[in-house]
Amino acid sequence: MSWLLIWVLLVARLHQAVSLNSSTAPVIPESTTPEPYNRTQYCKWPCTCPETPPSCPPGVSLIMDGCECCRACAKQVGEICNEADNCDHHRGLYCDYSSDKPRYEKGVCAYLLSTRCVYNGIIYRTGQSFQPNCKYQCLCVNGAIGCVPLCTYEPPRVWCPTPLRVKIPGQCCEQWICEEPKRGRKAAPRHAMAALSSGKNSWQQDCMTQTTSWSPCSKTCGRGVSLRITNANKQCRMVKERRLCNIRPCEVDITKHIKPGKKCLNIYREDQERNFTISGCTSKKLYRPKYCGVCTDERCCIPYKSKTVQVEFQCPDGDMITWQVMWINACFCNLSCKNPNDIFADLDQYYENREIMN
Hints:
Blueprint: H1 3-23, E1 62-64, E2 71-73, E3 80-81, E4 93-96, E5 107-111, E6 117-119, E7 122-124, E8 129-133, E9 136-141, E10 144-149, E11 162-166, E12 175-179, H2 190-200, E13 223-230, E14 239-246, E15 267-269, E16 277-278, E17 281-283, E18 290-292, E19 300-314, E20 320-334, H3 353-357
InterPro entries: CCN, Cys_knot_C, Glyco_hormone_CN, Growth_fac_rcpt_cys_sf, IGFBP-like, IGFBP_CNN, Insulin_GF-bd_Cys-rich_CS, TSP1_CCN
Family: Belongs to the CCN family.
Keywords: Cell junction, Cytoplasm, Disulfide bond, Gap junction, Glycoprotein, Growth factor, Secreted, Signal
């Protein structure tokens, strides 16, 4: 066979192979790698925060953002959230990214399923405050309900022989009254009548008067001042009232008036009537006030029965001024010696039997 024939056969077979390969499409394996995309960068460092934090609407929490940079107003239910804008966790909200697949960059604030409270057939959101009745204020916190009482019941002191808590018409909270069987009262005791009348002492029909107790005197001896808050006025506005108080004189040694064999003197009273004076002004009337005494042991004497009287003062320039003055009727010596400026003084006003017996 000649070389020319061999060359012709090789060329023919090559053309046949090319034609067969061109009739069949090449198979390319499918890629399993997801399409790349640019993820949004919500947090930027270093942090740049405003000088003053934002002012959030009522009920919206001011929290740290998701970048741990600045304080921001928390997003509420239905609002867009992301890695920087957090949902209000105080209200039991979380960022739901389920509708942003596969990126999971933006979400919507939604409630956790277990953060709602049910009371009396009503559903409350976590963080929602509600008042089931006039005596309690409640708050829903992560499925649990916590309540605080709106009524403050102050039981009578231990020297009250027959305490009784009564319902006052027109008022939500009951009040304690003290019956006084020793005086043989057949009608309602004066404490009950005072409680009934106090509920009607409103200048306007839509104003319920509220008055706090007088604070302890600012001084343990000499003239001081005690305060209270009240809205018993024509405008029904909360105002601060002041009254003068004098628990005992500083210039008198009361221990010299304690009887032999005794360790305490409950009440000290001056022999002569005198005028009250304040800032150069003199009271128009003469007074003989009572003061609390002292003890030579560890006990101290404090007022437990007193009232407030109006005293008119005549000033040198002819002006007349009126001051409320604490008038002591009775004092009680006990072991609970308190600082007159102690903010917890009202919490320690009931005494033990052994202190009364002594």
